[in-house]
Amino acid sequence: MSGSLRDIRLFVAAYEERSFTAAARREHATQSGVSQHIRKLECSLGVELFTREKGQVAPTPAGDSYYLRSIDVLRAHATATATAKSFSGGFDGALVVGLMPTMTRCMLAPVLAAFVEAHPNMLLRIVEGYSAPLTQQVRAGELDFAIVPAFAGLPGLKSRLFLRTPEVLVAGRTARSAQGNPVQLKQLGPLRLILPSKANTRRQQIETYCGSHGIEIARLIEMDAMLGTLDFVAHSQWRTILPGIMMAIDDPAGRLITNPIADPPLMLDLVLIEPSRRPMSPAAKVFLNLLQDEAHRLNARWNLMAIPTKLVRTEGKSRARHQVS
Fold first, then answer.
1. Where do the H-state alpha helices sit in the chain?
2. pTM for this predicted structure
3. Which of 175, 149, 183 is nearest to 239 (CA)?
4. Residues 6+ apart with CB under 8 A from 193
5. Distance of CA 218 to CAs 124, 137, 190, 238, Å?
6. Where are the domains of the chain?
7. Domain 93-319 coded CATH 3.40.190.290
8. What confidence score (pLDDT) does residue 305 get?
9. pLDDT attached to residue 88
10. Of 62, 195, 201, 209, which is the most exposed, with the fewest CB atoms less than 10 Å away?
């Protein structure tokens, strides 16, 4: 379509007002300026758009046809402008964050919703993985930051505590324990457990806990597939141990029973790691704060469920006496 956007706007004003003078007032231009733009437009098209007689203008058939297409052009331009402006708020650029399945299962969705609404022009990428590959990607500068289980630390990384959450025992709905009640693993053994492979930082911590407190493991399956683990547990007599933050929302299908591990509790420290050679970007700080707030909100469930160790022991004995009787 010939003519600049300014030409088209002035033409539409003149067409609708039937007057170059009124069109000039409407478009904050001069009458001579409107006349010149219309004449330039007609020259580029090779056809007259208006008849001019005694100070009056009237559209020609070509003008009528051009007006209909001009309205489409102006509407399309206004739509494109509004769409682009909707991205003007918040940060620009890219952000790449590494999270374990521990974080993505129930924490990520509300954080993502809030972040992309406030910062629509950010290119955000979430990389899901286990601690070892995420740590290497942070060191390589491929991730702005990641959340992983606490470890001894490596050169090139900065770290700080992100969250302390209890480890919980997860079983299928055929388990005898009541939802949310603390349990002592020693009283449940020998256990059939699904645990992450030895490459996972949590594996050594869980095995050390079991060995230190006389918890017998009858059989063991290694599985680094979180959805597969949960599905297998839901359909079998096997159990698994998972971070409480991952199981802080109820299973809508009622397939899983989740119980905090007590006497003593088994805790997991999650840490934030970032490259030490560069500061965290403002966008990364905002996303991290949203994650932190959501993590503390979800983790509060286990604080509310906390039962003193003495009470756990008493309840266990009471149940035992009841079963004998």
1. 5-17, 20-26, 31-45, 61-85, 101-104, 108-118, 131-139, 185-188, 201-212, 226-234, 282-305, 309-324
2. 0.69
3. 175
4. 217, 219, 220, 221, 238, 239, 240, 241
5. 44, 36, 5, 11
6. 5-85, 93-319
7. yes
8. 59
9. 64
10. 62
Sign of CA dihedral 247, 251, 257, 259: positive
- Model confidence at 263, in pLDDT bands (50, 70, 90)? confident
Q: How far apart are CA 85 and CA 82, in angstroms?
A: 5
Report the b/e string of 296-320 with b at 16+ CB within 10 A: eebbebbeebeeeeeebeeebeeee
Containing 272, the helix (H) or strand (E) segment is strand 267-275
Tell me the two tokens of residue 305: 């469920």
Domain 5-85: which CATH number of 3.10.20.340, 1.10.375.10, 1.10.510.10, 1.10.10.10: 1.10.10.10
Look at residue 42 and tell me whether its pLDDT is greater than 70: yes
Within a 10 A sphere around the Cβ of 105, how many other Cβ atoms?
21
Per-residue pLDDT tens over the stretch 196-226: 998 888 898 999 999 999 999 999 999 988 8
CA-closest candidate to residue 286, choices 88, 89, 106: 89
3-state secondary structure of 159: strand
Reading the block at residue 18, the tokens are 């039937």
CB 293 within 8 A of CB 165: no
